[in-house]
UniProtKB/TrEMBL annotation:
PROSITE patterns: AA_TRANSFER_CLASS_5. Homodimer. Catalyzes the reversible conversion of 3-phosphohydroxypyruvate to phosphoserine and of 3-hydroxy-2-oxo-4-phosphonooxybutanoate to phosphohydroxythreonine. Its cofactor is pyridoxal 5'-phosphate. This is Phosphoserine aminotransferase. It comes from Alteromonas arenosi.
Amino acid sequence: MSQVYNFSAGPAMLPAEVLKQAQEELLSWQGLGTSVMEISHRSPEFLAVAQESERDLRDLMAIPDNYTVLFMHGGGRGQFAAVPLNLAAKGQRAMHLVSGSWSKASVVEASKYIQADSADIRFERDGTIGASLDMMPELSTDTAFVHYCPNETVDGIELFGVPQTDKTIVADMSSNILSRPVNVADYGVIWAGAQKNIGPSGLSVVIVRSDLLGSPQADTPVILDYTAAANNESMFNTPPTYSWYLSGLVFKWLKQQGGVAAVEAINRQKAELLYECIDASALYNNRIAAENRSRMNVVFQLADESLNAEFLAQAKDNGLHALKGHRSVGGMRASIYNAMPLIGVQTLVEFMREFERTKG
Ligand SMILES: *Cc1c(COP(=O)(O)O)cnc(C)c1O
């Protein structure tokens, strides 16, 4: 089989080394004669996986001791509900900063449970679009938290700062967790659906400052209840064990790469290479303001959109898969998460230059 680079936004590619190890261990894990999928989550063997994966994540992100790490069900949208249910009283206010599609979607879900205020922090400037945390609105005193999305997966907009407020900050890091160092202590909650930068879909990782636990709304479904999860080592009900195990392998892989700072350096290099190619071209165009250009999801349009289908078909023939942009924005999107090697982006850039040369 020839080499394929998978630019899918999510579920996204996993490190080849991780998949290989999972394959080798599939039928008999740790010499048990069964797969890790088939054993009790309460067995000593699985408990060791659970503890080690948490320890590795804590090391990678330098998570302080006063934070609890949860491995939960329900992916990203599960957390759109879990956040308001766990952090605000019924009808209490919370502010949602809207920088793109996912933060917009979080408001819709949160408004089922709380007074979900929102503020559009997007701007248009000199033909570019972006978002700015300086556009933070005045907050009423009873605001329980400020929710934002530091990387808008669909729009290709990344926010590199932290909102300036003394309220609890909640960050949806689904598509950029572990891509660069963050100061966990700046946040009340960091959460991420796993399928972009951690592991398989369905699992979500929640890092919550422990003093925020203890007051979920009374009718919170127990599988979304942070306090119940915390009190039961994320095993109140059966956790998604295989996704958890694979995520643990990804954490180990990240440590082998030298940790988050080392991976960030490669992520910068990958993103710069691709944006340079786009900027130097007359065919490709990226409209995101320089300070908001995502290092994880690079969106671009072809000046001649009638070439889109041919671009995608030829890319696929060259082993460059899943470059089609989200249906809501069109064009192209190259998702270049941690698992995408530099050579994958170099191959894409070579292809893009060659495609432009033949069409130009
Ligand atoms: C993918 C994604 C989500 C939604 O994740 P699901 O698991 O599909 O619910 C939410 N937020 C961001 C930033 C995402 O990239």
